[in-house]
## 1
Amino acid sequence: MTAKYVGQPVKRNEDPRLLTGQALFVDDVHLPDMLHAAFLRSDYAHARILSIDTTAAKEMPGVVAVYTAEDLGDFWQPSPMIVQPPPTLEDIVFNPRPQIPLAKDMVRHIGDPVAVVIAESRYIAEDAAEQIWVDYEPLEVVTDIEKALEPDSPLVYEDLGTNLASHVRQEKGNYAAAAKKADLIIKRRMVIDRGAAAAMENRGIVVDWDAKTQHMTMWNTTQAPIPIRNGLAATLGLSEHQVRVIAPFVGGGFGPKIMLLQPEEVLLPWAAMRLCRPIKWIEDRRENFLGTTQERGQIHAVEAAFSKDGKILGLKDIFLHDTGAYNPYGLTIPLNTQTHSMGVYDVPNFYTEFKVVFTNKMIVTPVRGAGRPQGIFLVERMMDLAAKELGIDPVEIRRRNLIPADAFPVHHSIIGQDFIEAIYDSGNFQPLVEKARLLIGYDKFVTEEQPKLRAAGKHIGIGLAPFVESTGVGPYEGARITVESSGKVNLVTGVGTQGQSHFTSFAQIAAEQLGVAVQDVEVTTGDTDQFHWGTGTFASRGAVVAGNAIFAAAKRVRAKILAKASEVLDAPEEELELKDGAIRIADIPEKSISLGELAMLANPLRGAVEPGTEPGLEATEYFGPKYGTTASGVAAMIVEVDPDTMLIDIKKFVIAHDCGTVINPMVVDGQIHGGVSMGIGHSFYEQLIYDENGQLLNASFMDYLVPRSTDMPPSIEIAHQETKSPLNPMGSKGVGEAGAIPIPAVLAQALENALNIDGLELLEMPLSPGRLFELAQAAKNRD
Amino acid sequence: MKPAPFEYHAPATVEQALELLATHGYDAKILAGGQSLIPTMNFRLAQPAILIDMNNIPALRYIEPTPAGGVRIGAMTRYQTAERSPLIAERAPLVAEALPHIAHPQIRTRGTMGGAIAHADPAAELPAVCVALGARFKLRRGTQERWIAAEDFFVGLFTTLLEPDELLLEIELPPLPARSAWAFTEVARRHGDYALVGVAAGITLDDAGNCADVRLSFLSVGDRAVLAHNAIAALKGHPPTAETIAHAAAIAAADDIAPNADIHASVDYRRHLAKTLAQRALTQAAERASAG
Ligand SMILES: Cc1cc2nc3c(=O)[nH]c(=O)nc-3n(C[C@H](O)[C@H](O)[C@H](O)COP(=O)(O)OP(=O)(O)OC[C@H]3O[C@@H](n4cnc5c(N)ncnc54)[C@H](O)[C@@H]3O)c2cc1C
């Protein structure tokens, strides 16, 4: 038998390089004669640009060029929209306002790029940027999404006559009819504010135009190298093969790095071609806060209808979604919110409507979770409120509403981010809930421990929240696998890597099929000269979509190996075994040939072959799923609050998770750990705070609080369940965003339970000690 | 986030540093540990034309006993050195207790005791601790030296009595009275962050068990480190019971401080924290004093 790698906690292939500083990040690229760029970004959230004077800046020694929108001439074009609204959505409003390379007459958010300086060093570039004089006429600013829709609101786009970017209504069943039959109707307002992706590595670009070969190379921290190559070629009037985009090791993506043809990405190649010198731009942290997209920012009016035995009859949600000053990413986030608002529950009737709103704030695009945490938050909070109203245990009310295991696939008749109806392909929620309940020790805590702790004056509570995660969406990815004459395997795929352990998980899939060690599969990701079909790393799709392309390619290479070996060893294929880098006849171990030798035989230098023979042991395959897979999980926590300071301490955290076939449990755990810490951040520490002038008040890690190890629970206990997806041969589902999704819901529930104050409802995210204090005071004063 | 151009000097003696200051005065900035100055320069909020780096002046790095039973600390002493000093642990336990709350180990290996005082951040621990302890500071300008009491030294947000051409040379902590004990506590969003509110408390008991003296100071509740005179007066002469302490803490929160709201805390929340923390710190100091 071939060695079994899928499902094993194989150590990471990439770690030796990463841990010894041998991994290439964009900032490690140093080219001879390289110039450095700095951007001048708007200090105003909304202003007309009356004039820009770059004379002083241009005169500074070491400054090579300064460009404003005017200097770009015809090159100044709005970027194409990254995501269009689904053509399948009917009767919608959608006003596209894509990103532009440099602000021309108007700046629309703090950080909107106004000019770029190219100089001999970043120091000089920054000095010169300070010497650019922009004459602004400040305009009225709109930051509040509710006020933005009032008739007298300042307008982000005067030509539109409204701040409404989009309006979408969808319905499953008939909520109004269901509500008529309900014993209990709950209505609440819920607010979810913004957070940052805060990747460890900021964005960065090095671009090199070689005039002699007419070839451009760009190193970019992107999650989508191939679309960037194609977009750049089109924008610059080059052939796609004249442009190579390399996404080397990238220190975290989390969504904003999927953005493409961003101002920096279009301007620097254009400048490099004019100046015929390489240019580097490395975003610094302050710039990242002001120049990189963000997420969350929704206000919901939620209504749920329940029967008295706790069965949810229907859900209605009308929400506003903040898109910031532009909307290049279409409707992905609010659609995700819609398709996740039913969570793991059998919700027969669901009316959902949203308005997307332009504001004078940074653009909103997906950040890990991408609309999903919001949907889960609202449905889970509704479950808690109903449980309280109806006197049902919070876990019990959830159990009563779970989608049963035999109901899959579940059709929701709501169009999702991948343009087609949201369908849960598979799942088994009941045992997941039980696993989490047992791991957290729910029953014992509620019946024995909590009463004792409360009697001792402790404020300690429990929460348990299930969730779904739509993952593994299309359209497709591909992979090419080659057995080299050394016997090592080369695996190339188009997706980029930002820390997801692709070099290991992908290698495991191939190694298992080819009978080689995982370490002998060398994986290349994110280099368009190596592979130029594909879309990118987002929506927890790498392992599912690229993974299954790899699986298919590996199977085909395996078939080629067997066919060739059968010929060479003169034995039927069924008797052959692939093991330890060799092919042998099962019963006669001496009669074998190494993979390397076989690869050489498959690529002869002289002699004749059968016409139609393909050289080498190589195959390229693609995989595109019919629709996305649905992963699921149940998170539970015990949290203690100091009711005087409102500081919190997460005592215990567990999660039961189901992403179908687990390729590498250690890697899956790592994804969950990261997601959980991000979820904790976005629930209690991280909040981007804009004032009424649209100024971001905490654009540094001093004031924007990313949780530290000391803010994490002492451990994260994880239980895996494997409900295979029927949508792909491996049966896998994604996990990249899982950890972040349930945290707002589970933390709110646990904190409410811990504080145990009459009338205290936590219906907003993120919270903070100060906000908890205010909410608790308000609840006490209401009594 | 690159600083604007500046000229750099690294004098080897206090005298050379003072000479440079005399020449450049307003245009110059002293560089101590750089943990506050460098970030402000990188944000281009400060753009000093001249930087005078004090890190090559070993004469400013010392922790020594004073004959009276106190401690003298050279301005360029790193937090980390002070944190590990047995002399400080023995003679200034309040300082030892407060130091680990300052930022993170990495920052404490660079940041200096003098830098914290000269910087006068109202959210910093050390100024409040010095005010509670009744420390005094030695300043020098040219050949002129002067001593200023901690409570007088801090005059506003990042503002002290230091003249632009004057150096802070030493922090002197007085000896502790017999039967006195101290406590420090704070609330920060994350460990190592600047505190939302912090409190330093000291109680000296007389033979009858009443508070012969009380010291109570706050950080992060206004534009400078605040000594809570009203609360001190309320508790002095009384036994430190739960009631008297709660009463004093309430007075401190209501009358002694004028907190501001910021993105992390409202005025009400700060007052509430001030009361809670004052109560906790005074209680702990009282317990330690009666035990000790
Ligand atoms: C992430 C982070 C977290 C932090 N958290 C905290 C915290 O929780 N609590 C806290 O108190 N601090 C905190 N700090 C600040 C840190 O304590 C600083 O080190 C300290 O405030 C200044 O000391 P320094 O030696 O670094 O001074 P520098 O930054 O070098 O100088 C600060 C100022 O004092 C002046 N100065 C310095 N020495 C003298 C002198 N001898 N005479 C005259 N003027 C002088 C300088 O010119 C400058 O204006 C934090 C810093 C960072 C980066």
## 2
Amino acid sequence: MDILVILEGANGAIHRISKEAVAAAQALGKDLNQKVSVLVFGKNSDNLSKEAASFKVDEVLLVEDDNLKSYSADAYAETVKQIVEKESPKFVLTGYSYLVRDFFPKVSARLQKPLITDVTGYKVEGSKTLFTKQVLHGKLTVDIETKVDGPVLVGFQSAAYSLDNLEKGSAKIRTAEVTLDSAQLKTTSEEPFQEESGGVDLTSADKIVSIGRGIGKEENIPMINDLAAALKAEIGASRPIVDSGWLPNSHQVGSSGQSVTPNLYLALGISGAIQHVVGMKGSKNIVAINRDPDAPIFEVADYGVVGDILEIVPKLTEALKNQ
Amino acid sequence: MKIGVLVKQVASGESPLRIDTSGKWVVEESIDFTTNESDSYALEEALQIIERSGGAGEVVVISMCPAERTPKIIREALAKGGHRAIHIQEEAPYETDPFMVASIFAEALKDESFDLILSGLQSDDLGSGQTGVILGELLGMSTATLVMGVELQKGKLRVKRELESGWFQWVTLPFPACITIQSGLNQPRYPSLKGIMGAKKKEIKSIAKSDVKGSGTPMQEFSRMYTHKAEKRTEMIEGSTDQIVDRMIDIFKKNIKVI
Ligand SMILES: Cc1cc2nc3c(=O)[nH]c(=O)nc-3n(C[C@H](O)[C@H](O)[C@H](O)COP(=O)(O)OP(=O)(O)OC[C@H]3O[C@@H](n4cnc5c(N)ncnc54)[C@H](O)[C@@H]3O)c2cc1C
Ligand SMILES: Cc1cc2nc3c(=O)[nH]c(=O)nc-3n(C[C@H](O)[C@H](O)[C@H](O)COP(=O)(O)OP(=O)(O)OC[C@H]3O[C@@H](n4cnc5c(N)ncnc54)[C@H](O)[C@@H]3O)c2cc1C
């Protein structure tokens, strides 16, 4: 086997981030002239395997087992490990969702094979395939090389590949078996749930003023309320602001929060970490103020100001009030 | 309960970063090192778990880093309430393969027989997000990641895992367990003056990395490091604060048409 993509189900369909990984695999398969297979596992996963068979891939492997009915890190890791041992793929790709994060490193430990995570792309150079990711607060990029024979495990960053590039086809489904010993499955999980929604809905906002750690302290929040009022905008925030309890959860933008697409996203003192950017880069106009000229937020901004928000914001509010 | 906490020193977000002559890492002299953000939450959770269970037990702070830098973050963790520390001292070239890092920890910590190991979910510098899980696997512990809440039950642990977009899931796991902590589940304390004074007397056990046999050789390494290209053409607005504000109003009016 050449390239194997591990698919994750979410609400009876294949998770978006898994489909992005299939798009990545199809591109890699073309560049390396390798075939792409996908793995679906669970219990009663007919819907998932049918959906998987609609992708342009060589084949769909299907594993059904009672121990895979609900999520267990040990059962999931063991399933992938056994399939990889049996099928010997050269690459094992997956979308690096919050669920996959929980069990995929276990596969790396059990197979003793390298895992590269939050990957944004790849480069084929001669006989080598390098995987690219951001490091050091998103300010720098590295190309990572592996030093082993046999499978390289890769987790793709959400939104690294576009679903527009996912090619459709019709693949055959092959069932495969694994042996899971329920005594070895240590963790048990309950049904996923959503925390008190309510609060602000940023997804339909036309203008968002969003604040990050650059705001400095909680006492500076009223200054932002004034600006948002003058601009008739909703208030968004990066994770540290919510973590500190300065704004409720519902204001968080990013992979753990809301994904927003306003007409104006004004980012104030936000560095532009990838987990934040995935939630706002679809905004029509991004304006960023940050005192660090190297802040990665400027890479996605349409307009940028290198400066101190504490100085600029009060004057901007005044000027807006005078309009 | 005996709890180990992994704390890593990382470059702070505002450190100037220049790529060094190897083209694979940054010039370290100009970096300001701090405790990895999620590790601060992991330490706080460990201290609270001991407090919640009546104060019986021990929090052992564990860090791998060069000899000269680490004591600052270790001392800070001890000042906050860690009971003792283990410092695995390393020299360049530093370990960059998360599997190697975890296997060195596994070897150095196996005789401690921790009931619980906490780490951050992901480092702010390399962000592999694997070290805790692989360490747990190598030590035969149960594991869970992205933990936003911890409940102690008899002989087991019930943790609240974060999923995407405001979703969560409770997972139950037996001891010994190794869990990775997501930022935001508590409010990390500041060290008190008394804590800072007391930390000076606490034990820091130093182990040379070369004395610990990690299994195998690195399986992945950086081939090159570089600054990425911008996704968009950004118009930079320059001038005095007043000029900047005037131009922003202009853009809001004419270009974006939001006022
Ligand atoms: C699994 C996972 C999920 C995550 N989910 C999310 C998420 O959903 N949303 C999210 O936002 N993050 C998320 N994060 C965290 C993310 O990685 C970053 O840590 C976070 O986005 C950083 O927030 P920040 O930009 O406010 O802070 P920092 O990175 O600390 O940046 C602060 C910025 O403010 C600037 N600054 C400081 N003072 C001033 C001033 N006076 N004037 C102007 N600029 C100033 C600094 O130059 C700096 O660039 C997640 C992380 C992980 C690992
Ligand atoms: C050329 C080069 C030089 C480097 N120099 C240094 C250096 O001087 N100092 C340095 O710290 N790193 C250095 N690194 C990075 C280091 O090798 C990483 O610690 C390693 O790859 C682990 O990956 P991660 O941090 O992405 O782990 P992750 O899996 O993202 O880490 C998750 C958690 O594991 C724990 N953890 C991980 N590593 C450690 C550690 N060393 N000590 C305690 N807890 C830990 C923390 O709780 C952390 O939150 C260097 C890397 C390169 C390429």
